[in-house]
Queue: 2 jobs
Job 1
Amino acid sequence: MLSKLKNFRLKTLIMSLTISAIIATLVIGFIGYFNMMALDKCINEMYSERLIPVADVGNIRSNFYQIKIEGIFTSLTHSNDGDAKTKTYKENIDKYLKDYEKSTMDEREAKYINDFKLTYNSFLELVDKLNNSSSAENIKQIEQLETEIESILSDLQSYDEELAATQKKNAYDAYRANVKLMGIIYILAVGIFTIISYIIILVVDKSSKEMITKLERVADGDFTISLDNNSKNEFGLMTRALDKTRSNISNMIKSIKSTADNINVQAETLSSVSEEMTSSSQNVSAAIYEVSKSNEAQSLDLYSISSELNKFGEEIERIVSDIKEIDDNSRDIDAMAKESDVKLGSLVRSVNNLSISFDNFTEKMNALGIKLGKINDITNYINNISRQTNLLPLNAAIEAARAGDQGRGFAVVAEEIRKLAEESKESSENISKITIDIVNDTTEIVDSTNMMNNELVEQSEVIHMALGSFKKIISAIEIVIPKIDEVNLSALGLHEEKNNIIEKVSSTSAVAEEITSSSQEIAASSEELNNSTDEVSKSALALNSVTIKMIEEVNKFRLQEVSV
């Protein structure tokens, strides 16, 4: 059984535990939710179908008793004051009766309600008769009907209370069933959680004990143990990974052991080689000393050549800088000339447009003078009409004088016409004066406009001449710029060649100095090499001793023998 449990993965067990918990929680939640809904529905039904009808029956009985009391009071006092109250009680009974009928009724409830309505209607009819003519027989019948009504209402109320008790019992039974179901689910969930947790504990305990035992042997240096495990859980994966690590470390220790043996052999070889190197380094030191002297003389010659080339390079750099400045200035002049050319062209167009506008303005002012002349003709015509009109009142006054009293009204009209004619004449004369002033001003404006137009034409010609000069300047600059560019390129090429020469000479000088310095260093190093070879020989002996100790330490590990 335990061997099978070893194949269970912890991840699978934990996921099973989590899924079981989620399922149990969801089941408990759903059952609780639906049972709460059922309980809420049962409570609503108890309220609307049982409690409200019982209250309605109680209210009907209460109002019926009030009607009885008012009837007794009326019969004793022979007063009509209770009729209004009796009517209110009847309305209340009708209202509660309708409310009761709105609820869900079974056949027995419907029968009680029908019996009550029939008996109640008979009761009301007898009460009306009793108010009209009272008799002992009517009173007796009323008492019987009252008894029947009370019996019906009492039975109906008792029946409603029985139904409410039954529904309460059903709700309690549903509650007990829900509690039992929740308890069963809870017990099952706890059982499943316990089983899965127990399995996890067993798997972890057994697998961890096996791994700890094997790790203790590895810690003691025993690499012959096999850590392979066929278990499929996480501990099996860790054991297989650890076995791979053990195998790799074992191979590394074997390699270290083999390498230590090789180092021991090479240390002995190194000791013999170091003695041969001592004699060779002495010969090399003497040869390098002669080379160092020759390089010193060559280095001095190269240094003087480099100084002369540097002076020549400085002169070339000044020439290149001056050519570059000339090139920049010529390009700036070209750009400014082109910009001025564009602006002059724009100015020419503006002057031409202004000249056209002055021509249009002159034409319009001339047209205005002609129209003002026509206005003057019209005012002259109006003056003639007013002079003719002045004659009409004179003739009318003469005719009115001849007519005597009958012509007085005509004389008044003639006088008014004369006044209007004089006013028209004055107005036309004023218009004529204003028109003459406008014509004179217009003539002056036209003359001034013509003078300005002539000046604009002269300015336009001057601008055209300046524009032509700028175009010639631009053409000349465009011819000069390519030549300056060619000179600039040649100077830059010369500058680059100069730099290359200086760099090569400097490099040669530096190489010569480096050779001299290196030869001196080699000479010094050869002397140090003589000393070092002795130390190497000593170090080889020390290394041989260290490798022997390392081999002894490596042999403490127990390793698997490799089959050949």
Job 2
Amino acid sequence: MKFKSTNEIETIQLRDAQIKEMKLVGAGEVETDGEAASLKGLRARWLELYVEGAVVKDNNSQNEYYTDKYADQMEIRFKNPVIEAVLLEGHKYYDANDNLVEEVPDQKLAEDEYEKIFGKFKENYIFYGGKPEADKKCYQMIVDVDEDSYIVSFYYDKVIAGWNHFLNKANMG
């Protein structure tokens, strides 16, 4: 990759980026100690995310254009992720008079379903991608798949994003 950004995920906007592939590498093979050992969830060596349509913000160390720019295909690798949860987002249905008809709560998926769900993400779009806690190495994504939305929340040790080319200026207005 020509451009490589390390631990600057907050300077890369994934909203509306299309997922080409998302996979865990070495799931269940990682043992940790110290602070990371207290985190509960599925551990892996890497969580790899390949996307199109990511925006590299003007404050990214690799962006010398001083304006938000699209990147071509981007590879994002989270080292030692601990997936806290993958949720099938719930919903509420209302009738025309704004009366609640049905409420379905969020559903936490089993760890053995993660790879299958990540396979469903292919060719679908990220609705939200961000750090819910700015002072921690955590990340959360919401991915829309057909009529369902999935929330993926995880912690990581390091994140590396790589891409080969900048594309057009991103019009974020």
